Amino acid sequence: MNVLQTFSIRKSFLIPLGLLLAQCVILFILCLVQGQPLAKTLILGFIILPVAVLFAESFNRRTVVNNEKVTVFKFLRRKMLKFSEITAVETVMVRKRAFLTLCAGDDFLILSNAYADFPAMVDALLSRVPPDTVSEETKKLAAAPPTKSTDIVSCWLGVLLLAFILYIQLGGRL
């Protein structure tokens, strides 16, 4: 029986990131309508671009695992590896951020713990790859996958800061 599992980026990260993007766009429109200085408007426009790209990339990213292959869907592209072709499964840890690398010759996939239900994704992948390809660090990661929440906290702080800036921009008083 072919079991299909789908994993996506945590909603607890996507929601504040989407709010942050919406607030940036609203502030940009307010700057245009209110005739704010060009430099201020341009800087805001340059801030919107990476936020929009990060949101589009995170919103569209999902990993689909079945018995034969793993497929990662990204914004406007996708990449697939067959489990039978995987030659190494490595792990890189940077503080609470974990990256799982699946290598198949020159092809590779990098998956991070930004995914919802990361432990289940690691279990799904490691149960299908050839056992001799899994490194010791990856086995340790699978035993106790780290969770990361600083990106979520940072997004919510950005939402609060932009809410305050919008309040001031709309004529609010302190």
Can you characterise this structure?
The radius of gyration is 20 Å and the shape is elongated. The protein is built from five helices and seven strands; from the N terminus they run βααββββββααα. The protein is 48% helix and 24% strand. By secondary structure, it is α+β, with helices and mostly antiparallel strands.
Uncertain ranges: none
Cα-atom Rg, whole angstroms?
20 Å
Strand order in the largest sheet: 1-2-3-4
Q: Distance between termini?
A: 63 Å
Number of strands: 7
Gross morphology? elongated
Can you summarize the main beta sheet? 4 strands, antiparallel
Helix-strand pattern: EHHEEEEEEHHH
Count of helical stretches: 5
Mean pLDDT: 92
Give the structural class.
Answer: alpha+beta
What's the helical proportion of residues?
A: 40-55%
Strand content: 15-25%
Short description:
The protein is of the alpha+beta class. It is 48% helix and 24% strand.
Task: Record the SSE blueprint.
Elements: E1 5-8, H1 11-34, H2 38-60, E2 62-65, E3 69-74, E4 77-82, E5 88-94, E6 97-104, E7 107-112, H3 118-126, H4 136-143, H5 150-169
Antiparallel strand pairs: 1-2, 2-3, 3-4, 5-6, 6-7
Keywords for this entry:
174 residues; alpha+beta; three-stranded antiparallel β-sheet; 5 helices; 24% strand
